[in-house]
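Protein Record: Sequence and Backbone Structure Tokens
======================================================

Structure line: whole-number tokens from a learned vocabulary of local backbone shapes, matched to residues.

Purpose: to set a sequence beside its fold so the mapping can be learned.

___
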Amino acid sequence: MSPEFNQYLPIGMLIIIAIAFSAGLLVMSTLMGQKGRRPAIKDTAYECGMLPITAPHTRFSVKFYLVAMLFILFDIEVVFLYPWAVVFKSLLKEPGTGAQVFFSMLAFIGILFIGFIYALKKGAFDWGARRES
């Protein structure tokens, strides 16, 4: 075995142990788990002896998930932009890398700007009280 491979041996062993442990817990819970079905009344929420009035799980609007995904998209932009801005001045000192790094980040921001314009045209940032059916 090469010395480079020996460095990754503990990580591989940890992955194998984690997979075996997970599979073992799943098999044990299936074998030792409760057989049969429970009545539906046992799975209802207990509210001081009263039956629940509403359903326990309310549905979120698709708008909520759209806003969350747009937040993640533009949050990732900042995660990539901040370290680039920190090291950009030192990258300019190296010959031939300054323009390449600048234009690659310009392309990244351009693609995100196109996505921003697309979301704007589709009304993703419309915060009105419009109901979806």
The mean pLDDT is 81. Residues 62-122 form one domain. The chain is about 65% helix and 0% strand.
